[in-house]
Amino acid sequence: MIHSVRGTVLEINLDHAVVEVGGVGLGVFATPNTLAGLRRGETARLATSMIVREESLTLFGFADAEERELFTLLQTVSGIGPRLALATLAVLEPDTLRRAIADGDLAVLTRIPGVGRKSAERLVVELRDKVTAPEPAGAAGEQARMPAPVLGPRDQVVEALVGLGFTARPAEQAVDAVLAATPDVDSQALLRTALSSLGRSR
Fold first, then answer.
1. Cβ(61)–Cβ(28) below 8 Å
2. DSSP code of 129?
3. Which of 15, 39, 70, 171 has its CA at 20 to 30 Å from residue 47's CA atom?
4. CB contact at 8 A, 17 and 30
């Protein structure tokens, strides 16, 4: 099992990065938010999970071990494979996901592409006892303990595009144009469409 990789980022693509480790370029699939934190030519360290299939070995990368643990836990649910688990983490931050499962919040869970009401109910039933909802900060010291703001889908996609090498202004304009045309588009489709638009304008 490969638990982490550390090396120079050679490529950043729509759904994966290539990290050079010991002279070998490893393809690592990751969420747009994780990819947005990488920079070509710079050293990066990712927590990883390797999925072994008869015909392939696939490496998934995460910003930290917490995301990797949730990725593994999600796959214990019937019908949830690695791709859907990764899509879940692309749409929901770890704290948001744990809270939605603990609270049985189906409205939040069905925001995940490919997860309908029945799948959301299965997530709650099978994982509710395995996750701990994050505790709300108390009044005393709340500001000091307050986590960093969770980026909305628009800002996540803009960051992902910047991570792919586009400058902030054109990235924002491309994302806003897609949202104006299709307000209900999901994060993955938003990223794909905006990237396509930027590619045509280059």
1. yes
2. G
3. 171
4. yes
